[in-house]
Design brief:
Four Helix Bundle (Hemerythrin (Met), subunit A), binds heme C, mainly alpha, about 0% strand, disordered N terminus, about 170 residues, 5 helices
């Protein structure tokens, strides 16, 4: 037996268990008993405060869009706020036993319609008054849900500086 043969034999012997493992059939997947339904995939529903923080962002942008007289952007941001409020109604209709969906309609509908009119008429003075009225409505609901410490007001600086609020000239 020369040295080379011994080395190869030892190598092969060392490898053999691995090869054996690789060749053994994979374990059968554990199938659940017929009576147990497969787990439904998890669905992520954001917490109410996450919807609210998105509204807060768009509410900030809405102000600076209107201030720059960028009416299409203002209309867009108000539309997004309405959309998220609709999501709140769909996904969090009840909050701490309070009928949040109905409260939403009762509290902000008139204010949003007035703001839409001001944007359509491109009237900043009307818009600013409507914006303050909307803020009051936000705060009415916060007070009515024991969140009176969440107070909404006019912003003084844009939340983001990497979006240009000036009207886009075609
Ligand atoms: C129909 C009721 C209702 C209306 C209308 C409403 N909110 Fe809220 N908001 C809530 C509730 C309830 C909470 C507390 C959420 C929680 O505890 O998870 C909240 C919380 C918040 C918060 C706190 C989130 C945080 O993490 O700091 C902000 C910001 C906010 N709202 C913004 C607004 C703005 C802006 C408006 C109006 C454009 C508005 N909300 C209108 C019910 C409302």
């Amino acid at each position: 037996m020369n040295f080379r043969f011994v080395a190869v034999a030892a190598f092969a012997a060392g490898l053999f268990p691995l090869v054996g493992l690789a060749q053994s059939p994979p374990p059968a997947p554990a199938s659940p008993p017929a009576s147990v339904a497969p787990a439904a995939p998890k669905v992520y529903i954001p917490g109410l405060e996450q919807f609210m923080n998105v509204i807060l962002t768009e509410h900030n942008k809405l102000w600076f869009a209107a201030k720059a007289r960028n009416w299409p952007l203002a209309a867009y941001e108000l539309g997004e706020i309405k959309e998220v409020m609709g999501d709140v109604q769909d996904f969090v209709p009840v909050f701490k036993s309070l009928p949040l969906a109905q409260m939403m309609d009762a509290v902000v509908t008139k204010e949003i319609v007035d703001l839409e009119k001001a944007i359509e008429e491109k009237d900043f003075k009307k818009f600013a008054a409507g914006y303050d009225a909307l803020n009051k409505a936000c705060n009415t609901c916060h007070a009515g849900t024991e969140n009176e410490f969440v107070v909404i007001k006019r912003p003084t600086t844009p939340a983001f500086t990497n979006q240009d609020y000036r009207p886009h000239k075609k």
